[in-house]
Structure formats: structure tokens, C-alpha cells
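Much of the work behind modern protein science is quiet bookkeeping, done one molecule at a time. The protein below has been through that process, and both of its lines are reproduced in full.


***
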Amino acid sequence: MKLKVTQVRSSIGIKPKQRGTLRALGLRGISQSREHDDNPIIRGMLNKVPHLVKVEEVSS
């Protein structure tokens, strides 16, 4: 299973660690999306920035 992660809020004014998490997820701007494999590492990163991203499950 894959997860489609879309950035829905700006990274301006957020903590540096959260900004780094968005970068590690491959997100650089609002409405940009990336697909990641569903694993505990990605889930943990998404739990750090739930207010900035939208997550959808995609069948691969």
C-alpha cells in the first residue's frame, strides 16, 4: 500500500524540525504531492506534521 501525501499549509512560521520533516517527505510547497510506501518511519514523520499535510491511501 502507498500513501499520497499533499502539503496543504505553508511552512512559513513553523518550527525548524517540522520544516525539516516536510523536506524529508519531499514536499517543498503548498499543493505539492509525493507518494511513499506505508511504513512506520513515514507514519512517524506524518504524525509530526498532521496540521500541514493531507494523507490519502493509494492502491499500488
Notes: The longest strand covers residues 2-7.
